[in-house]
């Protein structure tokens, strides 16, 4: 149902019915105003969306235009040429279409948004201003009328006539404003029928023009579309024909890959893992390596197959030597060491399999490492230890962390290979040259001791030494260890004496090298007194192994240069009490060494595990003991030993009054950190 007409004659009466009809017109104007406001907002959103769509399609067209087909082979068929240029044709069509869309978007602002905003501002806005004026005059007229009616009839006639004239003026002005407002309201209601709809029609016309342009483009594209469809079908048919042939060749490659392998310009090529030094340790980086025997050039390209990208710069070196890496010298399998003419140090590489390593070593004319079956306490063994000690005391006695800081494993193994070579070892006067770092020499010494068939202080005495270290009295500990040392075979004792004299010299320089007696005990305890079986109990006794080594270092002159006293029948080794009486006291602080240097060295512990060579011990021990007994025939056996399982040599009582050194208070370092 339509709106009621507003009669000008009703403006004078200003009846309730007139006010109701006026309110219905005002509500319609308010509704129209809100609708146009939302329409303008939606129109702007539509224009923005069309711009984004156009931008996305242009980007899509640019991507199509940039891509170039590269067909397999050195020539293309007509069908392949047609397919290759199809993307550029697609891009051209899309760009042309988007050019027309942009013209439509630019016109949308002029033909739709601007007219609607103008109508809302000029027409509906003017009607709102007229309403404000009408409401203001209504309030003024009513106020004056009420005031006039309240005048007293007793006032002078002239005053009453003046009041009547004023009311007539206000009534006339209110009537004029009312007429103007009714006129404006009805004008806006009529104007919206064309000024509101006409912009929408213009916008739709632009939209139809855009779609018609697309239709024309589709007609122009029809011929190329037909040609392209035929080319695609021809290409698909050829693919189906060649696919079976390619698949047949693939099956042949699977069955016999060597027969169909391409001839390579390189003697050997493939993936290898190369050991690299990092700030946090070592890492193994995958490289694609090539080797050419004529030039002896090795090229290493760091490459990650998972990511398909290079991991760094290429490197090329000239081969000097290639040596297979022994399994017990490194925790990785299939390794070999390469030395280069133009690069210092050793490059450790890991092949993908044992067969792959053989191929690489054959291509590089690789050699087997110079090695002996096991380390021995023979002339070569004494020569190796003597050379290492001499090198340390000559040029490295004050180096911080001596024996605690480990050397590079590959360098250590190479030094041992040189020292254990019978040709090199026979040159007793030749010292270790200065090119070898002190940490490499100290690691070589420790590694050689671990390579012995058994620990230097022997498996059969290990428990006895531990029991001696557990005695509560320090003097008893020294006495028992003194006695046990002289039960060792002569060569073991000689090697141990040479080592302890050296370690005492190292400890005397602890202010410079930071290696106290306690620190040296932590380093050498597990090496010299390792148990035959690795058990929880043996691990708990590591601290006592360290104490034994500390006692040997601090009392080396007395222990190795004097003969021990005869032990009483009830030796304290058998009187380890599980209860403490009131007179017994724990070891005093003065009986423990001061530890000045604590730094974790996990590599040392790993090196210990990897370097132990298991071999038979019984024949070596028995022969050494027998030789010792025969060489000391003036001494008679004693049955008063503290360890009934061991045969004891009873020496004469010395007149020794050596004072037991007092040690500073301190703590032991965990041997797994050394």
Automatic annotation (TrEMBL):
Domain PH: residue ranges: 265-369
Disordered as annotated region, ranges: 635-674
Rho-GAP domain residues: 375-560
CDD domains: BAR-PH_GRAF_family, BAR_GRAF
Name of the protein in question: Rho GTPase-activating protein 26
Biological process, per Gene Ontology: signal transduction
Subcellular location: Cell junction, Focal adhesion; Cytoplasm, Cytoskeleton; Endosome membrane
Pfam families in the cross-refs: BAR_3, PH, RhoGAP
Main location: other
InterPro entries: AH/BAR_dom_sf, BAR_dom, GRAF_BAR, GRAF_fam, PH-like_dom_sf, PH_domain, PH_GRAF, Rho_GTPase_activation_prot
Keywords: Cell junction, Cytoplasm, Cytoskeleton, Endosome, GTPase activation, Membrane
Cellular component annotations (GO), alphabetically ordered: cytoskeleton; endosome membrane; focal adhesion
Gene that encodes the chain: ARHGAP26
MF terms (GO), sorted A to Z: GTPase activator activity
């Amino acid at each position: 149902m339509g709106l009621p007409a507003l009669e000008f004659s009703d403006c004078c009466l200003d009846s309730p019915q007139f006010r109701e009809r006026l309110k219905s017109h005002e509500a319609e104007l308010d509704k129209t105003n809100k609708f146009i406001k939302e329409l303008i907002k939606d129109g702007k959103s539509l224009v923005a969306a069309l711009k984004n769509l156009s931008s996305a399609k242009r980007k899509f067209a640019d991507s199509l235009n940039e891509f170039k087909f590269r067909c397999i082979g050195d020539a293309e068929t007509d069908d392949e040429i047609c397919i290759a240029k199809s993307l550029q044709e697609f891009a051209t069509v899309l760009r042309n279409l988007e050019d027309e869309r942009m013209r439509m978007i630019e016109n949308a602002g002029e033909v739709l948004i601007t007219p609607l905003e103008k109508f809302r501002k000029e027409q509906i806005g003017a009607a709102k201003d007229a309403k404000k004026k009408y409401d203001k005059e209504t309030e003024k007229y009513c106020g004056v009328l009420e005031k006039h009616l309240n005048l007293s009839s007793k006032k002078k006639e002239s005053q009453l006539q003046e009041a009547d004239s004023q009311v007539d003026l206000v009534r006339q002005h209110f009537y004029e404003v009312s007429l103007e407002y009714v006129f404006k309201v009805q004008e806006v209601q009529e104007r919206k029928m064309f000024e509101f709809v006409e912009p929408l029609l213009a916008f739709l016309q632009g939209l139809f023009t855009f779609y018609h342009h697309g239709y024309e483009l589709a007609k122009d594209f029809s011929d190329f579309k037909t040609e392209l469809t035929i080319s695609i079908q021809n290409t698909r048919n050829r693919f189906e024909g060649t696919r079976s042939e390619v698949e047949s060749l693939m099956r042949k490659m699977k069955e016999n890959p060597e027969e169909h392998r391409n001839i390579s310009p390189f003697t050997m090529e493939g993936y290898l893992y190369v050991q690299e030094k990092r700030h946090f340790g070592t890492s193994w980086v995958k490289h694609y390596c090539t080797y050419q025997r004529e030039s002896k050039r090795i090229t290493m390209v760091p490459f990650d197959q998972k990511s398909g990208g290079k991991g760094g710069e290429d490197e090329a070196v000239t081969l000097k030597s290639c040596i297979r890496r022994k399994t017990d010298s490194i925790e990785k399998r299939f390794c070999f060491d390469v030395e280069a003419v133009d690069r210092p140090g050793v490059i450790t590489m890991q092949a993908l399999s044992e067969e792959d390593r053989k191929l690489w070593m054959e291509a590089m004319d690789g050699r087997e490492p110079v090695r002996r079956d096991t380390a021995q306490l023979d002339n070569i063994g004494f020569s190796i230890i003597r050379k290492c000690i001499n090198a340390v005391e000559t040029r490295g006695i004050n180096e911080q962390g001596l024996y605690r800081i480990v050397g590079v494993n590959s360098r250590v193994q190479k030094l041992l290979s040189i020292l254990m070579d019978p040709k090199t070892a026979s040159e007793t006067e030749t010292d270790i040259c200065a090119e070898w770092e002190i940490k490499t020499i100290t690691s070589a010494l420790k590694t050689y001791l671990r390579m012995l068939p058994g620990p230097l202080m022997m498996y059969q005495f290990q428990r006895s030494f531990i029991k001696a270290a557990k005695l509560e009295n320090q003097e008893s500990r020294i006495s028992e260890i003194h006695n046990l040392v002289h039960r060792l075979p002569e060569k073991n004792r000689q090697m141990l004496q040479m080592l302890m004299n050296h370690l005492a010299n190292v400890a005397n320089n602890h202010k410079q090298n930071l290696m106290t007696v306690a620190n040296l005990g932590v380093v050498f305890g597990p090496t010299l007194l390792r148990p035959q079986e690795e058990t929880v109990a043996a691990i708990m006794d590591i601290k006592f192994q360290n104490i034994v080594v500390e006692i040997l270092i601090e009392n080396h002159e007395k222990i190795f240069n004097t003969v021990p006293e005869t032990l009483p029948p009830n030796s304290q080794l058998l009187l380890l009490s599980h209860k403490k009486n009131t007179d017994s006291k724990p070891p005093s602080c003065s009986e423990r060494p001061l530890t000045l240097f604590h730094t974790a060295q996990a590599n040392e512990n790993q090196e210990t595990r990897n370097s132990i060579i298991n071999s038979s011990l019984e024949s070596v021990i028995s022969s050494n003991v027998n030789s010792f007994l025969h060489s000391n025939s003036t001494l008679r056996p004693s049955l008063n030993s503290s360890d009934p399982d061991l045969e004891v040599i009873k020496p004469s009582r010395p007149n020794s009054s050596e004072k037991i050194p007092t040690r500073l208070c301190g703590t032991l370092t965990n041997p797994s950190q050394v």
